[in-house]
Amino acid sequence: MAAGNSEVAALAQQGQQRRAEQMSERSRMRSGEVPVVELRDVSKVYGGGTVGLERVSLEIGRGEFIFLVGPTGCGKSTCLRLLMKEIEPSEGELFIAGRSLKVIKRNRVAHLRRNIGNVFQDYKLLPNRTVAANVAYALEVVGQPRSEIRRKVPEIIRLVGLSTKLHNYPDELSGGEQQRVSIARAFVNHPPLLLADEPTGNLDPETSIGIMQLLYRINRTGTTVVVATHDRDMVDKMRRRVVELYEGRVIRDERSGLYSPDESTSEFAIRLRGEFGIGAEGHPN
Amino acid sequence: MRLGFFLKEAFRALRRNAAPSFAATMTILVTALLLGVFIPIVQATTGGASQVRDRVLLDVYVKDAATEPQIQRLGTALKNLDNVGEVEFISKATALKAEMKERGSEAYEVLGNNPLPDAFRVTPDDPDRIDALADAIVVPDSGEKRGSITSSPAFAIIDEIQNKEEETQKILSATGGIFVGAIVLAVLLTIASVALVANTIRLSVFARRREIEVMKLVGATNWFIRWPFVIEGVVVGVMGGILAILLLALAKVTVIDSLQQTFDFLSTPETLGFLPLSLVLLFACVAVSAIGSGLTLGRFLRV
Ligand SMILES: Nc1ncnc2c1ncn2[C@@H]1O[C@H](COP(=O)(O)OP(=O)(O)O)[C@@H](O)[C@H]1O
Ligand SMILES: [Mg+2]
Which of A254, B53, B91, B96 is 20 to 30 Å from the Cα of A120, by its Cα? Predict the structure, then answer.
C-alpha cells in the first residue's frame, strides 16, 4: 500500500516535472533570449546521395515572419522536416529555443511537436471527421480536458472565419477553407513556432492572400512563423525576411527594409491586395 | 489515459473495419465454444479416471465349498502379504444387497437364489504395484508355476482373482487421447484466432495510416496512437467471448440440463461451475486478442 502510494506520488511528480519542462521550453521559445530556431552548418544527404541541404546556417528570432524560398527541390521541405525531427541531419546541429534536437530522445519527440504548429500544401485533414473534430484532435492529443476542447474549438474556428462550417466535412469545403481548418488545428495549442510548407501551393492568388493574412495575424500574437514557398511573387510583395535556397544552400538572406513591423493585419492585407492588383472587396476565400 | 476518447476511436475503427472484425470475432467465438465444451469434458473424464485410480483393488472370490474357518484363514493370509493396505470381507448376502440396490432387485428375485460368491476386497498400499500383489496370491490349481513363490495352503479355496487395473489403464489411455486431441485443437484454434485478430488490426492500421501520420504531426505519443488499436482488438475478443458464453448457456439450459433430469449418468461431479468457466473463457478471449493486436502493433506500428 505504502509502496503503491509512493509510486503514484513519483508518477505525479514526474508529470509535474514534464509539464514544467514543457512550460519552460515554451517560455524559452517565447522569451527571445535565444533564437527560436537555429541551424548550425546543417547538411542533409538522402539515401542514394541526393543532397537536401548543404551547410546551412540560419537563425530565426522570436516573433519573426520568415519566408524560405527557392525552386522546387531546393531543400525547403527538408529544412522544415529537420525542424520537426521527422528526419535527422547528416551533419551539423539544429536548435529549437536553444535546445539541441540531437539530445531529444525519441519518446520526447511528440512533446517537441506539440510546441510546433504545422501547415501543409495538401492540408492533411482527416477526411471522415468534421471541421470541429479535426481541430479538436490536436487538443485530444495533448490531453486537454473535454470542457477546454468544447470552449477552444469554436473559438479558434471563429478566428479563422469558418464558424458556419463547424460541422461540415473537409470534402464539403473549398481549398482555402480547408487550409484555414488546417491552420486552426496548427494554432489551437498556441505553439510558439508555426511551420507552413507551401500553404498556398494549391490556392489561387486571392485565396492565398487570405491565408497569408491569417498567418500574419497568428504571427502578431507572438508566434514565430516560417513559410516555405516557391511563389516568389507573393514573397516579394509580402516584404518580410526572405531566405533563399538553391540546391540546398542559402544564397540570400534578406531582411527587407520595406515593411514596418507594426503594420496591422488589415493594413497588411490592403497593401498586399493593392500590390497584387486585386480589389479589397474580393472574397476572402 | 483518455479512456472515453480511446473507446470512441476504437468503435469508430470497428465500424469502418467491419468485415475483418467480424471474421476475427467468429474465429474467437468458435475457439471459445470448443474450449467451453472441452474443458468440462476433459475435466469429467480425467476426474472419472482418478476416481477409478483410487479404487485400484483386487477382488478375491472364494469357492462355494469353503468353510467358515477356511475363509478366516484366507483373510489372515491375505492381510500378511506385502503391500496390502486393507482387506474387507464381503459376504454373499452383502454383495447381493449391494447389487440389488445398484441394478434393481427384479433379476435376482427371479433367480430365487444368490449366485454371488463370498469375496475379499484387497486394497493395496501402493496402487502401482498391484500386479506384484496379484502374482503373490497364487491360486493353487490354476496350473501356473510362479517361480519361487510357494503357495500358502490358505489360498486353496480361492476361486478367482479379479484385477481392476486393466480397466483403469483403458480409461486412463482413452482420456489421455481425448486430452491430447483437445489440447492440439485448442492450440491450433488459438493460433488462428491470434492471427485473425492481428490481421484485423493490421488492416485497421493500414486504413488509418493517414490519421496516424497526422497524429504524429500534431504531437501524439506512441501510446496515444496505439491504445485505440489495442482496444479495438480487445473489443473483438470480448464480443467473440460473450457470444460463445451466450451460446454455451443456451445449450446448457436447453440440452444438458433437461438430459440430466432424465439420465442420471450425465451428471459430471467434478466440472467447473458455469460462472467460473465463463470467466476463464472471457479471459482467454481477451488474452488472445490482446496478443493479436500486440503482434501487429509491434510489427506494423513502430511509431
Ligand atoms: N525522402 C527523400 N529521399 C530521397 N531524396 C529526397 C527525399 N526527400 C527529398 N529528397 C530530395 O531532396 C531534395 C530537396 O527536396 P525538398 O526539401 O523536398 O525540396 P523542396 O521542398 O524545396 O521542393 C530534392 O532533390 C529531393 O528530390
Ligand atoms: Mg517541398
Answer: A254
The answer to whether B216 contacts A113, with C-beta atoms less than 8 Å apart, is yes
Q: C-alpha grid cell for residue B26?
A: 467468429
- Could you tell me the fold of the domain covering B56-163? Alpha-Beta Plaits (3.30.70)
Q: Which of A107, A128, A137 sits opposite B218 (nearest CB)?
A: A137
A140-159 pLDDT per residue, tens? 888 889 899 999 999 999 99
Among A109, A141, A153, which would you mutate to test the B interface (most chain B Cβ atoms within 10 Å of its Cβ)? A141
Closest-CA residue of chain A to B225? A141
Residue nearest atom 10 in ligand 1 by C-alpha distance: A52
Work out the number of other CB atoms within 10 angstroms of the CB of residue A226: 26
Give residue-wise pLDDT tens across range B268-289.
444 567 888 888 889 988 988 8
Q: Which residues are paired to B88 by β-bridges?
A: B121
Mean pLDDT for the stretch of residues B153-170: 73
Order of strands, sheet of B158-163, starting from the edge strand that comes earlier in the sequence: B84-90, B119-124, B58-62, B158-163
Query: What band does B147 get if pLDDT is binned at 50, 70 and 90?
Result: very low
pLDDT at A24 over 70: no
- Please state, in angstroms and rounded to a whole number, the distance separating the CA atoms of residues B31 and B196: 12
CA distances from B239 to B27, B176, B185, B289 (A): 11, 32, 21, 11
User: DSSP character for B32?
Assistant: H
C-alpha–C-alpha distance, residues A92 and B14, integer Å = 45
Give me the residue spans of the domains in chain B. 2-52+170-301, 56-163
Position B79 pLDDT exceeds 50 = yes
Alpha helix positions (H), chain A: 2-31, 76-83, 109-113, 131-141, 146-159, 175-187, 205-220, 232-238, 265-276
